[in-house]
Amino acid sequence: MRKVISNKLSFNISATRTLRSINSLVLFLSLATAYYIDIISALGIATSSFYVIAFIAIKDSESLVLPFLIALLISLFIVIGPFLSPVKLGIHSVFFNLSLTIIISWMMASLFHFKKIRKLKMNEIDQTLKSESKHIPEEPQNEVSI
């Protein structure tokens, strides 16, 4: 029995590592692709939807800080991007699109952060209930027949 459990655990650990590697690769490629598309597209054209893929890649991460690091990186890309992009639209629409992308990325980071905190609190409550339920003595149930 113990050997089966260790095999299951080792499989889960290797599967988890593989999943983390794939998520890291997707995160890197999505940020690189989004930044490249942001640079080659005309300034003021909204390409922020490509940055959303980075947040999707980290949705299962256990880190509470990682969403904010991704939002910071996206914000830096957004700020640096206009200096490398060709200018096509008016400056007002450019600043609106860039500001909107930065705001959305920080909102997504906050949502992921609070979702993870809520999940941690629910796990803590679940563990507390499980430990408390072990201390409750079982009472015999009376059967009621009609």
The Rg value, from CA coordinates, equals: 24 Å
Average pLDDT works out at 74
**What is the N-to-C order of secondary-structure elements (H for helix, E for strand)?**
HHHH
Strand residue percentage:
under 5%
* Main sheet makeup: none
Give the quaternary arrangement of the chains. Answer: single chain
Number of helices: 4
* End-to-end separation: 45 Å
Number of strands: 0
Poorly predicted residue ranges? 1-11
Proportion of residues in helical segments: over 70%
Spatial shape: elongated
Could you say which structural class the secondary elements and strand pairing correspond to? mainly alpha
Short synopsis of the structure:
With 146 residues, the chain is mainly α. It has helices at 2-40, 52-57, 66-84, 91-133. The protein is elongated and about 80 Å long.
Describe this structure as you would to a colleague.
The protein has 146 residues and is an all-alpha fold. The protein has a domain of 94 residues. 73% of the residues lie in helices and 0% in strands. Helix 1 runs parallel beside helix 3 and helix 3 runs antiparallel to helix 4. The longest helix is centred in the last third of the chain and has 43 residues. The N terminus is likely disordered. Keywords: Membrane, Transmembrane, Transmembrane helix.
Essential attributes:
146 residues, mainly alpha
